[in-house]
Design goal:
alpha/beta; Rossmann fold; 2 domains
């Protein structure tokens, strides 16, 4: 794919390396550097690219020439990613969104600094806020809304007409029935089945199948 835009990734973790790879092979962006706060910088290069201090990055990479993506995960219910997202925007950077060419996307709206991995199915009339990550293989049902600063891990099913509150984390293989509201600051453990609305700032784990009694 022809490279028409230049990008910087904030972060040095394995997640940042994966995002660099995908942007390189499947987007119009050329990743030119990584950035982090100076207290985390111990080397001059990472993953074959320069690693520069975030505090004054705009001096070397002007905001009118380069875009940025905050390539960090769900630490502190996504609040760490949100903090640097806001700082980067205040510096004047455009925060790029990546949507894999191997996803199925009929969304009504997807905000900035989102990263949509391969094999996601996003149905019509879905709205996804800013600074969200949808890892591989999820289903987001029609008319559902994902608020800002959410992390959806992998193979999650969000049925139709659901609402996912800000700063939530949805664990691998969690399933949300249609019409459900996941409140703000929720953590859903792996394999959760949610069949009623949740409460704010709660953690939900586990699911248990029970026999359904039928008349003979």
């Amino acid at each position: 794919m022809k490279k028409t835009k230049k990008a910087i990734l904030f972060g040095t973790s394995g997640q940042a390396e994966v995002m660099d790879y995908l942007l390189t092979i499947d987007s119009e962006y050329e990743v030119v550097a990584f950035t982090s706060t100076s207290d985390f910088i111990k080397v001059e290069r990472v993953y074959g690219r320069p690693l520069v201090a975030f505090e004054n990055i705009e001096e070397k990479y002007p905001v009118d020439e380069f875009e940025m993506h905050i390539a960090i995960g769900y630490h502190d219910r996504n609040k760490t990613r949100e903090r640097f997202y806001k700082i980067a925007k205040n510096k004047g950077y455009k925060l790029l969104t990546y949507i894999s060419s191997k996803s199925t996307n009929y969304a009504k709206h997807i905000g900035d600094n989102c990263f949509i991995f391969e094999d996601n199915t996003i149905q019509p009339f879905v709205e996804i806020g800013n600074n969200c990550i949808l890892w591989s293989g999820n289903h987001v049902g029609h008319h559902s809304k994902i608020e800002d600063n959410v992390f959806v891990s992998s193979h999650v099913v969000i049925s139709g007409h659901c609402k996912i509150g800000s700063h939530s984390f949805l664990g691998v293989n969690s399933t949300i029935r249609d019409g459900i509201t996941i409140a703000k600051d929720n953590l859903l453990g792996a394999g959760c089945l949610i069949i009623k609305d949740t409460l704010e700032n709660k953690t939900y784990v586990g699911t248990k199948a029970t026999e359904f009694q039928t008349r003979s």
